[in-house]
Inverse folding.
């Protein structure tokens, strides 16, 4: 199949058709299956690069479909759809290698951004493996960074920008227990100052804070009206490779989607699930590293062939 083909496994015919229409309109050719067994057979036959599956597909759960599809093709990107009661299983799917899980009802913009990022991640991991192989380095699949201890051992610094002191302290404990260094700040101005001085690899910022930085200016071609966006745009001006995760108590879809479009890795709803937080951090750091490697590889002048000039 082509590199933008998507297999949709969804038992609800209305949801299935809506997903098809959204993805077709965005240029992703779709194949449909209404249960897990049918979906697995379709995957084996066509090997699409991306599978979007409901967690509760009849006959075979989305988690089992994920497990078996990845056994067939370790590079497949999988997005899991779930209702609010399935968070535990959805997080289990992330641990098994799913790219992301999306809560129903699905936001169209969030779906399209997630699809784009899933295919991007798949391609970057394939490229990394191809670049490593000629030099005898170990081959790695799309779980390259997930759960790897060396992320924590590289002294990764995480900047937390959070107004609530208790939440800040909980996040610090979580990150330090996971092996990360952590820097805490209580507002946007303090956070931006700390970022400029310390250049952390990742920032997790609360969107519920009051005015954080001045607005009403152009940043990277974007007119910044909302102070919450302003902080993160200032961070990206300082370091375009900075990984950003936003947290929020109430889902402000417009702001969150805008930040995702601008480059934020993900948004997390409070209260934050620890497993989801740590997996999201690992994926955000992974994406940051993959994009840096991709840019370095493509910016590097091509080596002359050993046969040239002979």
């Amino acid at each position: 199949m082509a590199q933008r083909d998507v297999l949709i496994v969804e038992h609800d015919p209305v949801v299935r058709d809506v997903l098809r229409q959204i993805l077709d309109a965005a240029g992703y050719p779709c194949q449909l299956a209404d249960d897990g067994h049918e979906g697995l057979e379709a995957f084996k036959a066509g090997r699409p690069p991306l599978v979007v599956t409901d967690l509760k597909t009849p006959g075979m759960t989305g988690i089992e479909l994920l497990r078996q599809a990845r056994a067939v093709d370790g590079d497949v990107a999988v997005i899991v759809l779930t209702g609010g009661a399935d968070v535990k299983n959805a997080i289990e799917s992330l641990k098994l290698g799913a790219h992301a899980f999306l809560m129903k009802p699905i936001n169209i913009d969030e779906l399209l951004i997630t699809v784009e990022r899933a295919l991007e991640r798949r391609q970057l991991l394939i490229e990394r493996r191809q670049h490593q192989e000629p030099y005898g380095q170990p081959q790695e699949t799309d779980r390259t960074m997930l759960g790897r201890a060396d992320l924590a051992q590289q002294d990764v610094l995480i900047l937390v920008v959070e107004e609530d002191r208790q939440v800040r302290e909980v996040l610090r404990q979580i990150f330090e227990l996971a092996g990360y260094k952590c820097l805490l700040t209580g507002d946007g101005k303090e956070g931006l100052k700390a970022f400029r001085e310390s250049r952390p690899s990742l920032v997790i910022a609360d969107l519920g804070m009051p005015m954080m930085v001045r607005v009403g200016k152009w940043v990277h071609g974007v007119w910044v009206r909302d102070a919450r966006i302003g902080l993160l745009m200032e961070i990206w001006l300082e370091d375009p490779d900075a990984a950003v995760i936003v947290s929020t108590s109430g889902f402000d879809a417009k702001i969150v989607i805008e930040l995702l479009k601008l480059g934020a890795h993900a948004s997390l709803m409070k209260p934050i699930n620890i497993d989801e937080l740590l997996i999201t951090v690992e994926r955000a750091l992974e994406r940051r590293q993959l994009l840096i490697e991709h840019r370095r590889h493509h910016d590097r002048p091509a080596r002359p062939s050993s046969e040239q000039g002979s």
